[in-house]
Design a protein that fits this description.
By secondary structure, the chain is an alpha/beta fold. It contains six helices and nine strands. The chain has a single domain, classed as Rossmann fold (3-Layer(aba) Sandwich). α1 packs antiparallel against α2 and α2 crosses α4. The model has no long low-confidence stretch (mean pLDDT about 95). The structure holds S-adenosyl-L-homocysteine (SAH). S-adenosyl-L-homocysteine (SAH) binds next to β2, α4 and β4.
Length: about 220
């Protein structure tokens, strides 16, 4: 688990490129600068870890592109101490960025193998989000309500359970669309049953799968 000067240098360059692409939150940039992304990627491909590209993590899933992680984290407006629910743990990288932002992180992954890999790997690099194996469409009612909810897979619609599990004043960030393209959507819960919505352009995530496609 080495994080040497070369890695740190590459990470700094990645952060500079994210700034150039329009990420303005210094807290988010600092968090990206702190998480050793190369450790989330197969050793053989270490040199690709600090390019601004998504990358396969097995089980047909990907670790999101750094720009996307930064963009979603910025929209989420994390305040130290926020209770944040992430849907789609994947490699656990985004969860670590949220931890670096000072959030208390709960994260759900439907894929058993990815869940197990994250459960074993993350404590080794000293990150301890609360990890759950389950269906993100249902959220995490036992631990609700949350200050913020972040969905890191493309959803066909905004799941009602996630809206319900948000505190009033809370923020939900979710890419909504079809299998190819989703619109980054930010929902602010303005009252018990009231929401304001803003959209932030097209992205392309792996799909948020429903129970029928579990295998
Ligand atoms: N946040 C991740 C990348 C997410 S890729 C990272 O930082 O690496 C999307 C993830 O969502 C995949 O791991 C996929 O298995 C998971 N996923 C898809 N449908 C899901 C569902 N219904 N509930 C929970 N996780 C789901």
């Amino acid at each position: 688990m080495i994080d040497n000067y070369k890695h740190k240098g590459l990470r700094k360059r990645l952060v500079d490129s994210l700034r150039a692409k329009g990420i303005v939150s210094e807290a988010v940039l600092k968090a990206i600068n702190s998480v050793p992304r190369h450790l989330f990627i197969d050793n053989a491909f270490e040199s690709l870890a600090y390019r601004d590209k998504p990358f396969p993590i097995g089980c047909s899933q990907t670790i999101s592109q750094p720009y996307t992680v930064a963009f979603q984290s910025e929209l989420l407006d994390v305040v130290k101490g926020d209770k944040v629910l992430e849907i789609g743990t994947g490699s656990g990288y985004q969860a670590c960025v949220l931890l670096e932002l000072g959030a208390k992180v709960f994260t759900i992954e439907r894929h058993k193998q990815l869940f197990n890999t994250a459960r074993i790997f993350l404590p080794k690099i000293k990150y301890k989000p609360k990890l759950f194996h389950g269906d993100g469409y249902l959220g995490l009612p036992t631990f609700a309500p949350f200050d913020k909810i972040l969905v890191t897979a493309g959803a066909p619609f905004i799941p009602e359970a996630l809206k319900e599990q948000l505190k009033v004043g809370g923020i939900l960030v979710i890419p909504v669309g079809n299998a190819e393209n989703q619109v980054m959507t930010k929902l602010i819960k303005t009252g018990e049953t009231e929401y304001s919505k803003k959209e932030y352009g097209d992205f392309s995530f792996v799909p948020l799968l429903d129970e029928r496609s579990w295998g």
